[in-house]
Amino acid sequence: MENLHDKRKVYEKSQLIESEIKQNPIEQFRDWFLEASESPMISESNAMAVSTVEEDGCPRTRMVLLKAYTHEGFIFYTNYNSRKGKAIENNHKACLHFFWPNLERQIIIKADLEKLAENLSDGYFHSRPKGSQLGAVVSPQSQVIPDRAFLEEKLKDLEKKYENTEVPRPSNWGGYLARPYEIEFWQGRPNRLHDRIIYQLEDLDWKISRLAP
C-alpha cells in the first residue's frame, strides 16, 4: 500500500469573504470563471464534472465542457441517448463541479436540467468544426461497438457523403440548460480552514450562508 499521509499542500492564494462577494451566484461565478480563463496555468477553464444518478442508484461522473452560461444557468451539449442523457431523462437533477487547483478553488452546483430549444442546439452544432459534427453523427455514444475500425470506417463514409453539403444535426444530439438551485464556492485557506460560501435558492431569492470547512 502506498502511504499518502504526507502528501499535502498549503492553501494560501486567496480568500472568500462575505463583504467581498456578489449577491447573485451567477455574477460570482462569472468573476471566478474570468480569473480561471485568464490564468496561464489553466488550459481548459470550462472543463467541468457532471454527475448524474443512474437506474441502479449509483452516481456516475464524467468531464464535459461548459459552452455557455447565462442568468438562467449553465449550458452543455451531449448525445441524448448516452448514459448521461438516459440518466437525465429519468432524473432531471445533476451536480456540476469545477476544480481549478492553480487558483485553489472549486465550485459545486446542484441543478435541474432541461433540454435546450432545438434552434439553439442547431445553432451550436453548425458552429462546430465539420469533423466534430461528423463525430457526433458517427458515434453511438455509450453503446458497445466491435472495435475502433467500426468508427473510422463509418467516419470515412460520412466524410464522402457530406463532402459538399451541410451535416444535419442528429435529433438525439443537443444541449441541456442546468438551472441551479444551490451553488457552493470553495476557496482553499491555510490550516484546512477553507472558505465555503453557499447560495441556496429560496422562492426567487438567493440565501447566502457560510459553511464550516
Structural features:
single chain, 213 residues, alpha+beta, Pnp Oxidase, Chain A, nine-stranded antiparallel sheet, 5 helices, 25% helix, globular, Pyridox_Oxase_CS
What does this structure look like?
Strands 1, 2, 3, 4, 5, 6, 7, 8 and 9 form a 9-stranded antiparallel beta sheet that branches. With 213 residues, this protein is of the alpha+beta class. It has a domain at 25-125 and 172-210: Electron Transport, Fmn-binding Protein, Chain A (Pnp Oxidase, Chain A, Roll), CATH 2.30.110. The protein is globular and about 60 Å long. It has helices at residues 25-38, 83-90, 118-125, 130-138, 148-161, and strands at 47-53, 59-65, 68-69, 74-79, 93-100, 105-115, 173-187, 195-202, 205-210. It has 5 helices and 9 strands, in the order αββββαββαααβββ. β1 and β2 form a beta hairpin.
Specify the structural class: alpha+beta
CATH class wording of the domain at 25-125 and 172-210:
Mainly Beta
Could you tell me the number of beta strands? 9
Question: Which consecutive residue ranges, at least 5 long each, have pLDDT under 50?
Answer: none
Apparent shape: globular
Largest sheet: 9 strands, antiparallel
Subunit structure: Homodimer.
Domain Pyridoxamine 5'-phosphate oxidase N-terminal: 41-158
Keywords: Flavoprotein, FMN, Oxidoreductase, Plasmid, Pyridoxine biosynthesis
GO molecular function: FMN binding; pyridoxamine phosphate oxidase activity
